[in-house]
Amino acid sequence: MPNYLKVTPEIIAELEKAAPGRVVTGADVNPDYSKDEMPIYGVRMPDVSIDAQSTEEVSAIMKICYEHDIPVTTRGAGTGLVGGCTPICGGVVICTMRMNRILSYDLENFAVTVQPGVLLQQLAEDALKHGCMYPPDPGEKMATLGGNVATNAGGMRAVKYGCTRDYVRAMTVVLPNGEITRFGGTVSKTSSGYSLVNLMIGSEGTLGIITELTLKLIPAPQATVSLMAPFEDLAACISVVPKFFMKHYQPQALEFFEKEILVSSEQYLGKQVFPRKIEGTDIGAYLLITFDGNSMEELDPIVESASEMLLEEGALDVLVADTPPKLKDIWAARSSFLEGIEEQTKLLDECDVVVPVNKIAPYVEFVDEAKKNYDFEVKYFGHAGDGNLHIYECSTDMDREEFKKQVREFLDSIYRKTMEFGGQISGEHGIGLGKVHYLEEAAGSVNMGLMLGIKKVFDPKLILNPGKVCMKL
Amino acid sequence: MNILVCVKQVPDTNEIKIDPDTNTLIRDGVPSIVNPFDGYALEAAARIKDNAPDTKIVVLSMGPQQAETALCECLAIAADKAYLVTDRAFGGSDTLATSYILSKAIEKVEELENEKFDAVFCGKQAIDGDTAQVGPELAEHLGYPQVTCALEVKSEADGLHVYREAEDGKEVIGVKTPCLITFTKPSFDPRFPTIKRKIAARKAKIAQLTAAELTSIDPAHAGLKGSPTKVKRTYVPPRKEAGVVVKEETVEASAHKLFDLLSKAHVI
Questions:
Q1: Looking at CA atoms only, how far is residue B188 from chain A in angstroms?
Q2: What does the pLDDT read at residue B23?
Q3: ipTM above 0.90?
Q4: What CATH fold (topology level) applies to the domain A9-97?
Q5: Are B8 and B38 in contact (CB under 8 A)?
Q6: What domain range is B31 assigned to?
């Protein structure tokens, strides 16, 4: 571990000059800045927090911290699930939430320039007013775009439109030594040297601090239809998934979940939207599909054909949501899965594996078998179209240390299975603090060495977000 | 049992925009939906049909041609048949004229279907006009007893049992058929249409009733001319902030929380 120095009153005075009136220290620091939504990986209060307001300010702060070997952790809304913004070495936390302005639209080139603290929901709503859609759609709408880029967030529309990476054109970055640079360009293609912008995407705040983003938009689809297909059991539900691709249906979203997780989400929302039975048969699992296009006339034949296929493959029925209130209801329940789980559980851990689409069914079977050996509950749901599964380990009564021990063992076994199936240990949540040792195992020493090498080029003093991704403490 | 459900196509108020100069609704580009309260009325009828599959549900709407979309949606959800009352002569009708036209249209539908309706279900009000007058006026025109603000209805041997929202709880009112019932928001949502019903609804032909068919209507009581209501001014009511729900784990904790909130607001 590098030899970080303490934040002294002299350094605080210097920081105060860089960000007047916004340098908060000691017990006055907002306790939220000590963690993200997954405190199980560790909690630590920073010595200093600063709500930054501009690129120049971030640059001035970094120059001071670089000179004095002070660790710096950047955070947005703190909605991460891997301890990515937990300032595990203390030091300074820079929060970008106040840099929350949408700066400009270039509608002819379908681009928007934003500050990193703009919330996903804020951009989604604003872009719609301009007739555009920002396709990435992670479940957490209150996350910042800076955080989304830092983790290459995915979401429900990734199956058709791809992840955040596919929508980042350019960015302004403050390097650990305070230098300001710009990566990428607003053009739609490039073959101009190493893609530094792509190195930044998914780097989880370990290489530089993003202070401005130029993102790609698309014309907003004019028509949207969602289908809900209930199945008697999960196996039948999941086995349909590959057929959507073979038939070129191009769903915008393709999600699966079991009844239990839906029930907890609907309890959280206080409203039952999904049926539990169809003509006397108990529903075990649901598939939720969205199609988008230019008009309902364009979508009708796709919806009909896909429904026919679903019924042939064992769906108990196909229910249609094509009006604004129904679409809102059907997705509200899906979007509240995590909140539903969080409300009902005291100890929580999760993993976010991706497996090939045709391996979802055997993978889930393996998880179901593996969980029998442990005392915690396992709940999962997933982006079926991407093979991305969110598996939550939950307990309300276990001893914390025992929980951690058992979860570690469970995760070890399911991550091993992930690798065996040719999958990845994180689809969209990132590595952060919580998954470093798993990445080490999955990526191997050569690749970990390359990653650490890149880290050192950007951050020779290793002061930026220490202990995360490829840097073990 | 035969149930007629009256529905109205309204602009989706979540999307409503007001022209700041004229203070009127901008309807262009605002999606249209089935009035939500009418949706609850349809769901109530569907729930009766769930228990008594020989129940027949007919939906009736008055409005311009595009109201067909709303009727199609009702067919996809639960209705067996749909009628649209549409004629320029009916345009500009106030609630009195509308309920009068609807009462005559219902007589006509009964004639065409060769059956009487046991009950007429309406939403308690439409979310665009918010008058809550058409249902009760329609009951008067039809000479039916009426129950307003219903949450749920059960069909029993001695008539309909209506679970009604009251100031201090729920009331159960028994009513003999034929009757008219208006519905408010229950704790459940209307069901989703199934794909099979959706496809059938798309192909369904919606019967139209114009002034030519509705010969019993006295033109002096229909349309803008037949409407005693004169609109002097329309304006947007001030927006109310959402209330705060205090819901802690225990009653004591809730009381403390409420006390804190009231103290902070300097109310106590």
A1: 7
A2: 60
A3: no
A4: 3.30.43
A5: yes
A6: 2-237
